[in-house]
């Protein structure tokens, strides 16, 4: 019998999630059945949707999320012992998975793609939801063309930093907004963004007059709120907006969300396309994103910075730290 630990969400979050909204539960795993695998978790992902989706499930629920682990026992010939897998089993140190049992959000399990000796933790960014989100959310919805100007909020985060690098690969001019001067320096000096700004200290409207005098063609929106309205008011005719997330409001009371300026006149007069998406829509095509992103990574055309916290007991701290902007790049926890 294997003893396992998992984080259970026992209360709905009010504002910033609190430590005692979670309980760490110890329990014994049953024997694996036909087709199942026993996975020892190596890395877990902390992500904004774990906050945003909180009220979609009846409490108590096991905290879902992507993780990379190694197969320790198997009754599935496609997944021998020692295989590295990506699953959606969340914040636990051991789990039993049937790789064939997909959910709406994720495959039951898939083999970690060959990262040519790079850290398997990249299975939580480059070859997981994060990478697919940046790739499809930007390329499919924004349909960027070389020479166009792209604005990105949440630009120094996991998804945003990839979107900016993909935009550079596609020959675009890239303007990023992030929440500290260090992040801004990293975006400009290391990732090659054309311009980056600290949204906490600049006047976004005045900044865009200078940074994008000819307007913005594509906007990848990770944060929502007032900054998004300002950016959209700077868009060119036939501009495209990919609405990926609205993290600026995830900890807010949904009945009291802040008002943002009316955008309809800009949308109509500039004939803008504004599209939200959920990355599960492309679940059967994620491998296409993984192939291109891994190739670009190995060619040195893009990079993924990881913000790593150590220890199963620290997952909560990593989660609220990410929501507060402590991460540059992908926030992950090494178990
Ligand atoms: N539609 C979909 O299918 C998917 C959507 N997403 C969305 O993509 C977005 C980015 O996710 P991900 O890359 O994983 O997370 P990040 O790595 O970007 O981490 C979250 C970041 O959000 C920023 N942030 C926090 N509060 C605010 C605020 N009030 N205003 C502006 N920025 C804030 C912080 O950076 P800073 O220091 O810059 O403030 C923080 O580092 C999220 O909105 C998420 O929900 C992600 C995956 C799939
Ligand atoms: C699947 C993730 C969705 C958001 C909103 O993060």
Automatic annotation (TrEMBL):
Q: Which family does it belong to?
A: Belongs to the NADP-dependent oxidoreductase L4BD family.
Q: Which Pfam families would you find in this protein's record?
A: ADH_N_2, ADH_zinc_N
Query: Any idea where the Enoyl reductase (ER) domain is?
Result: 18-333
Q: InterPro entries of this UniProt entry?
A: ADH-like_C, ADH_N_2, ER, GroES-like_sf, MDR_fam, NAD(P)-bd_dom_sf, PTGR1
The compartments listed are: Cytoplasm
Q: Which SUPFAM superfamilies match?
A: GroES-like (SSF50129), NAD(P)-binding Rossmann-fold domains (SSF51735)
KW Lipid metabolism (keyword) present: yes
Where is this chain primarily localised? cytoplasm
The subunit field of the Swiss-Prot or TrEMBL record says: Monomer or homodimer.
**What protein is this chain from?**
Prostaglandin reductase 1
Keywords, A to Z, come to: Acetylation, Cytoplasm, Fatty acid metabolism, Hydroxylation, Lipid metabolism, NADP, Oxidoreductase, Phosphoprotein, Prostaglandin metabolism
One GO biological process term is: prostaglandin metabolic process
User: What GO CC terms are in its UniProt record?
Assistant: cytoplasm
Q: What is the lineage of its organism?
A: Eukaryota, Metazoa, Ecdysozoa, Arthropoda, Hexapoda
Annotated GO molecular function terms are: 15-oxoprostaglandin 13-reductase [NAD(P)+] activity; 2-alkenal reductase [NAD(P)H] activity
What does it catalyze? pentan-2-one + NADP(+) = (E)-pent-3-en-2-one + NADPH + H(+); 13,14-dihydro-15-oxo-prostaglandin F1alpha + NADP(+) = 15-oxoprostaglandin F1alpha + NADPH + H(+); decanal + NADP(+) = (2E)-decenal + NADPH + H(+); 13,14-dihydro-15-oxo-prostaglandin E1 + NADP(+) = 15-oxoprostaglandin E1 + NADPH + H(+)
- Enzyme type, top EC level: oxidoreductase
UniProt source species:
Leptosia nina
Per the UniProt entry, the Enzyme Commission number(s) are 1.3.1.48, 1.3.1.74
């Amino acid at each position: 019998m294997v003893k396992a630990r998992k984080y259970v969400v026992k209360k709905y979050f009010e504002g910033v999630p609190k430590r005692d909204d979670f309980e760490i539960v110890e329990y014994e795993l049953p024997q694996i059945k036909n087709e199942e695998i026993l996975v020892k978790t190596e890395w877990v992902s902390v992500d904004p949707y774990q906050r945003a989706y909180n009220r979609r499930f009846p409490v108590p629920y096991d905290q879902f999320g992507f993780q990379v682990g190694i197969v320790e026992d198997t009754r599935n010939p496609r997944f021998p012992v020692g295989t590295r897998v990506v699953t959606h089993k969340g914040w636990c140190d051991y789990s039993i998975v049937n790789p064939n049992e997909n959910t709406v959000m994720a495959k039951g399990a898939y083999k970690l793609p060959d990262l040519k000796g790079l850290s398997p933790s990249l299975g939580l960014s480059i070859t997981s939801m994060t990478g697919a989100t940046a790739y499809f959310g930007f390329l499919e919805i924004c349909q960027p063309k070389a020479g166009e100007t792209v604005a990105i909020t949440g630009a120094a985060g996991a998804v945003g930093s990839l979107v900016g690098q993909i935009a550079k690969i596609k020959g675009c001019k890239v303007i990023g907004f992030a929440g500290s001067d260090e992040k801004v320096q990293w975006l400009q000096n290391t990732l090659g963004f054309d311009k980056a700004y600290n949204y906490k200290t600049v006047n976004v409207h005045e900044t865009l007059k200078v940074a994008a005098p000819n307007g913005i063609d594509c906007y990848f929106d990770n944060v929502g709120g007032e900054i998004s309205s300002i950016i959209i008011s700077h868009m060119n005719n036939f501009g495209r907006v990919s609405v990926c997330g609205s993290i600026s409001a995830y900890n807010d009371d949904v009945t009291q969300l802040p008002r943002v300026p009316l955008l309809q006149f800009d949308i109509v007069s500039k004939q803008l396309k504004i599209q939200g998406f959920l990355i599960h829509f492309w679940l059967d095509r994620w491998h296409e994103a993984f192939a291109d992103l891994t190739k670009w990574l190995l060619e040195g055309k893009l990079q993924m910075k990881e913000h790593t916290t150590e220890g199963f007991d620290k997952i909560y701290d990593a989660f609220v730290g990410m929501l507060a902007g402590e991460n540059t790049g992908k926030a992950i926890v090494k178990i």
